[in-house]
Structure formats: C-alpha cells, structure tokens
Amino acid sequence: xxxxxxxxxxxxxxxxxxxxxxxxxxxxxxxxxxxxxCEFGTVLCRIGRxxxxxxxxxxxxxxxxxxxxxxxxxxxxxxEKELFFLFPGEICHIDSMQQKAALERLGNLAGxxxxxxxxxxxxxxxxxxxxxxxxxxxxxILFV
Length: 144
Hints:
Layout: H1 2-21, H2 25-36, H3 39-52, H4 59-71, H5 78-84, H6 87-90, H7 96-143
Helix pairs in contact: 1-2, 1-7, 2-3, 3-4
C-alpha cells in the first residue's frame, strides 16, 4: 500500500513540475527521487541517471526495466502493479497541460486503489478484533 501512496505522490508532484518547473524528464525524475528519500525514490534517480548517460536510453525502456526489478519487492496485486508501468505512456503528450492532466488521472487511479486497500485492511482489523473478543469470551465460559 505504501508503494501506491508513493507512486500517487510522485505522479502529482511530476504533474506540477511538468507544468510549472519546465525541466526535462531525466532531471525531473532525479529531483523527485531525491526528495522522496525512499527505495522508490532511488529507482526514480536510477532511471533519470540512465537516461542522461552517453547512450541516452529511452524513458520507456529504462522505466520498464527498473520498475520490473523494483516492483518484485513490493506486495501488490497484479492490477496495482500494472499502474506503475503506465507512466511512460501517459507522459508522451506534447502539450504540458495534457501531460499534467494524464498524470493526475493516473494519480487519482493510484489513490483509489490505495483507498480500497486501506478499507480492506480496516475491515480485516475489525474482523480480527471481533474474533479475538469472541475467543476470549469462549475461553472464559469454558474455564468458568
């Protein structure tokens, strides 16, 4: 769930930077990655650095490789993991307003998934608490 929250935060920050910061993509990824100070941020920095090296690797290629490696370390469902691979396709618009809107849509989707996970966790916690209380009551009745 934390991974989705970080991704959502990254998408909204990237949307703002694209519109107002006017920085190129490799620098944007490095800047946002350094601000995040977490493993996901480190991945963003690696992507940005690979794009600026001599070869000048394409965002789509680098993103797919680095995300595939990192995404294996987080505990998410397949549909949630797929969200992480949509970024390069959403950033392909020429107009910065369209890029911003596309990233915000993707950020909202990540937020919805994150909210669904939080709700499910809350339900599971309530169920666990109820079972513990029931078990305690049953044990008390047996021992009385």
